[in-house]
């Protein structure tokens, strides 16, 4: 599993490590190990995501599929 973290506060090594560990943990809970090994995960952190997306209320993130191989 290849994990890339960028964006707001991505220079924090502790935060990056927590995100990588959590991503791998939950991926292994949901899928077989051989499937997890083929995932490229890009995590982009954004400050005030709801404001940037023009949404009133709370938004914690969203997921996009970049490649459908």
Automatic annotation (TrEMBL):
<protein>
    <submittedName>
        <fullName>Uncharacterized protein</fullName>
    </submittedName>
</protein>
């Amino acid at each position: 599993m290849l994990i890339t973290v960028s964006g707001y506060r991505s220079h924090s090594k502790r935060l990056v490590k927590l995100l990588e560990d959590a991503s791998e943990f939950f991926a292994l809970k949901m899928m077989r190990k051989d499937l997890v090994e083929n995932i490229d995960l890009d995590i982009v952190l954004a400050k005030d995501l709801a404001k940037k997306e023009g949404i009133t209320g709370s938004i914690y993130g969203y997921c996009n599929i970049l490649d459908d191989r």
